[in-house]
Amino acid sequence: MITEIFILALVLFIYRTLFRKKEPSRLPSGPRSLPLLGNMLDMKRNGHLKLSEWAEEYGPLYTVRIGMKPALVVSDTKLLKELFGHAASTGKFKTDTIFELTKGAYGVVSTEGELWHEQRQFLIRTLINFGFGKPTMEPIILSDVQEAIDWIKKDVAEQGTVEIFNVFKSGVTNALWCIVSGDRQTKDDHTFSLLIDAFVDSIQNSVKSGLFFLSWLKTIAPEASGYNWLVKTTDDLHDYVGKLFDKHRESFTPGSPRDVIDCYLEKLHTTTDPKSTFYGDNGKKNALATIIEIFEAGLVTSSHTLNWLTLYLTHHQDVQAKLHAEIDRVVGRNRDPSLQDKAKMPYTEAVILETLRITSLVPLGVMHELLYDIDFHGYRLPKGLLLVPNMYHVHHDKKIWGDPENFRPERFLEEDESKLIRSDSIIRNSVLAFQMGQRKCLGEPLAKDVLFLYVSKIFQNLHASPDPSSPKPNFEYDDGIVLIANKFRVVMDSR
Ligand code: HEM
């Protein structure tokens, strides 16, 4: 009997050892972390550089801790596309600080599930109605670029140099303002622009102080962590946009929307289902949050990309000369560039792609959170896991680019430089500035049109060279959610 039991136990043991489904370990390993703070101290300044360094040490998938929460850092093009393309990855990193920006779980950027889906779809449809991807937007943007050129010429005539960022900021604000409220910004009214500046500064500061990730800092250090400042700038902006919204309501005629705000008014007006995210008071809160997000997400990104691009061209005269030559050949000097020229201007496109790559403006993208458990490359990723897209690392990975530190648009061209390399090549696929998957930036088409029209028209008319009082290239930046080039001035001569 004992022998039989022994044999049975042995058979069971062998069977389980051979045929038991192996439980995948939950998370890949990563750097050691501190209780409560996790890896936040290591990532306090230039976190993107630290995460890139760790990607070399721990590989394309590793775990860090944001405070107490585990976060999977993904540093490879294919893995990023696969993971962020999964429906489970459409959740969002949620903290009280993030919800402070939208006054609760409202809008598109910080929401998830049905609320996010309904609001995102409506926003995309509305933006398309008012110009996205349509030829009607082109003359509006071109007229903003003309104003920018006049402003630059005036500043250069009076002061010798121009702080170009202000010019881009004003132009992009106008384009977005025009879509949102059907109007142009009054040139001398800087109220909105100042509110946005303060709002962005306070968000950048909250990333540096750690408040953005560790909301409990607001309780122990509301002033030092920048919480009070963040609340003030957010309140001011919500106040301003709220008044704009109410003013629009006075002149709104149901059935004939003039702009994005009218579309929201119409939708709120016609929604009778209490379960809808457009119903009642919550509907209005979603509308206000989304309108602010259009500026928050669209203005800073587009204007700082143009700013960086000018800085790179100023210090890479050879690239600027090739850009000038292509614009002269395809567009000439006697007409405005048009989006239809794009297909014939691969060098201009390559300059834009190279700028998006090398600057990695949003170096770690926007963090997502897993909505449910999934298996991924041998790991069991749990619900609630934070996902960090390490786009900066991909954009600077020697294995992909060879010489990532060099600004070299030619890398995006075929050998004879007559056209862009294939869109399915690893190089083209690894420009991830707009992130990837179902939450990918919905402003990408507008941003790409704005970048193309600005670059082609500005450099059709002007030549950028360094400010003689600080001729050395300075590519240093302020880090936060976005990497902001240090202020600089340039000489911009008429061609
Ligand atoms: C160079 C310009 C731009 C860059 C680099 C950029 C980058 C990004 C990134 C990295 C995200 C995060 C996506 C994610 O969570 O997966 C994002 C989201 C978003 N962007 Fe952009 N963006 C740009 C321009 C714009 C413009 C012009 C608009 C507005 C019209 C815009 C509106 C949005 C919105 C609403 C979201 C949230 C999408 C969602 O969560 O579903 N962006 N953008």
Mean pLDDT: 91
Quantity of strands, as a count: 11
Name the strands of the widest sheet in spatial order: 1-2-7-4-3
Order of helices and strands: HHEEHEHHHHHHHHHHHEEEEHHHHEEEE
What's the number of structural domains? 1
- Secondary-structure class: alpha+beta
User: What is the CATH C-level name?
Assistant: Mainly Alpha
CATH superfamily: Cytochrome P450
Bound molecule types: protoporphyrin IX containing FE
Characterize the largest beta sheet: strand count, sense, and whether it forms a barrel. 5 strands, mixed
> What is the overall silhouette?
globular
CATH topology: Cytochrome p450
Distance linking N and C termini: 100 Å
**Strand percent estimate:** 5-15%
Percent helix range: 40-55%
Low-confidence stretches: 15-23
Pfam families: p450 (PF00067)
Family: Belongs to the cytochrome P450 family.
Subcellular location: Endoplasmic reticulum membrane; Microsome membrane
Binding site for heme: 441
What does this structure look like?
The protein is α+β, with helices and mostly antiparallel strands. It has a single domain, classed as Cytochrome p450. The chain is 52% helix and 8% strand. The chain contains 18 helices and 11 strands. The protein has helices at residues 2-19, 47-58, 77-84, 96-102, 113-129, 137-159, 164-181, 191-209, 217-220, 227-251, 260-270, 280-314, 317-330, 346-359, 391-395, 398-401, 426-429, 444-461, and strands at residues 61-66, 69-74, 91-92, 368-369, 374-376, 379-381, 386-389, 462-466, 477-478, 484-485, 490-494. The protein has a 5-stranded mixed beta sheet. Helix 6 runs antiparallel to helix 7. The radius of gyration is 25 Å and the shape is globular. It starts with a helix and ends with a strand. The relative contact order is 0.15. Residues 15-23 have low confidence and may be disordered. It binds protoporphyrin IX containing FE. Protoporphyrin IX containing FE binds at residues 108-109, 120, 293-294, 297-298, 301-302, 305, 361-362, 365-366, 433-435, 439-443, 446-447.
